[in-house]
Amino acid sequence: MAKQTQNGKAFEFACLDAISKRYKDQVFVLREKSAAYETAKKFFDELEDVHKSVLISGSEKGVEILERLEANLIDFTEEDKLKLSIQADAKGQSGDVRDIIIQKNEKWEIGISAKHNHEAVKHSRLSPTIDFGDKWMSLNCSEQYFDEINVVFEQLEELKGIEWNNINLNKVNVVYKPLLNAFKKETMRLYEQYGEEVPKRLVRYLLGEFDFYKFILDVNKRMIRVNAYNLDGSLNKKTKNIKSEYNLSKVKLPTKIYYFDYAENSNGISDNTMELICNNGWQISFRIHSASSKIETSMKFDVKLIGVPVDIPTFIGII
Predict the structure, then answer these.
(1) DSSP secondary-structure letter at 222?
(2) Which residue blocks in 195-240 are alpha helix, DSSP H?
(3) Whose CB has fewer CB within 10 Å in the chain, the N or C terminal residue?
(4) Which residues contact 56 (CB under 8 A, 6 or more apart)?
(5) 61 and 185: one domain?
(6) Domain containing 137: what range?
């Protein structure tokens, strides 16, 4: 397992542990000790003390912020029970991006997506057998799209298993750009056919089917950012006795695509990243890469939200 993945899972445990310790004297807290929980705990326990300290401090700050947004984390009765769990990775693949689930009496629930030093929302793939239109948006890609990408993947099939460094192949011109061009062309074809359903469904795919809070820990800057993705209005609920310190608005999904093309950076036009700009403040980048030192018959996207609506607030905690 990659080091970044191990650190991410360790951060998940740190967040759950911080929640448990903050509320254990106020309410009965149950930790669900699943395989996912034990894996996250193992990676946390293996960290050096200095790294552990940063994760603990960041998690504690994140939970402090969360408490100011969720009245249910302030208002407890003697009958209440708080159940904490870490979700298996398979949940993310099926449309639930939340890593940590907090439940109170099975009637109230929120989730946290915990990110350690990165902000990618998805790591989706393109391949000859993946219909991204269907998988992402329930809108099928055309035969022309598959004809175009198969020209690339047929070449990679012949080289499968060989180290990229051991062949004389221009990855940008032979692989990245043809795939990105086909991806852009097909996305815009779907948009012309289905209109606002394309940007709306795309964002829902990226963010998952449930509202959630995102904890983004920046180890180097010693800070944590908390974002609230309140698309369906299920976050920030008041209780009978208390309402939260801050009021979260329901977030509007995009309905129009304004721009979809290669991103520009300080060095000019990118050769592996496209940028999608939509209305209502949504801006998404798609960076394609091989994700392996050996040639495979698929390519991976790192998908990031580089622009979000003002209705998605950012709360900062300094460690």
Answers:
(1) T
(2) 197-207
(3) N
(4) 14, 17, 18
(5) no
(6) 125-203+253-307
What are 45-99's pLDDT values in tens digits?
A: 999 999 999 999 999 999 999 999 999 999 999 999 999 999 998 776 668 999 9
Q: Assess whether 196 and 300 both reside in one domain.
A: yes
43 & 80 share domain: yes
Q: Are 77 and 105 in contact (CB under 8 A)?
A: no
Residues 262, 147 share a domain: yes
Alpha carbon dihedral 242, 244, 245, 249, in 10-degree steps, equals -140
Classify residue 26 by its DSSP letter: T
pLDDT digits (tens, 9 = 90+) for 226-256: 999 999 999 999 999 999 999 999 999 999 9
One domain for residues 133 and 192: yes
> Distance (Å, rounded) from C-alpha 195 to C-alpha 257?
9
CA torsion sign for 304, 309, 315, 318 is positive
Q: How far is it, in rounded angstroms, from Cα 3 to Cα 293?
A: 16
What is the torsional sign of CA 178, 179, 184, 190?
positive
Residue 234 phi, psi dihedral angles, 5° rounding: -90, -10
The dihedral sign for the CA sequence 295, 297, 299, 300: negative
Region of residue 94 (phi > 0: left; psi between -120 and 50: alpha; otherwise: beta): alpha
- Helix (H) or strand (E) holding 40, with range, is helix 35-45
Contact status, residue 125 vs residue 136, Cβ threshold 8 Å: no
Q: What are the CA-CA distances from residue 148 to residues 100, 131, 154, 189 (Å)?
A: 40, 13, 11, 14
Q: What letter does residue 252 receive in the DSSP assignment?
A: P
Residues 26 and 169 in one domain: no
Q: What whole-number distance in Å separates Cα of residue 40 and Cα of residue 30?
A: 17
Question: Are 47 and 187 members of one domain?
Answer: no
* d(C-alpha 87, C-alpha 35), whole Å: 9
Domain count of the fold of the chain: 2
